Amino acid sequence: xxxxxxxxxxxxxxxxxxxxxxxxxxxxxxxxxxxxxxxxxxxxxxxxxxxxx
Length: 53
Prior knowledge:
Blueprint: H1 2-19, H2 24-29
């Protein structure tokens, strides 16, 4: 499964590079960088609205 994904990724990247040959940074923006999932802290303080006069 991973090999198939890589092949499709390379095919798409190659197509975009031919379309935007003069602008490789634009091609890089089509793909999101890999990020690890961040742990969300469970202890969040509730927001208290200010008292109105």
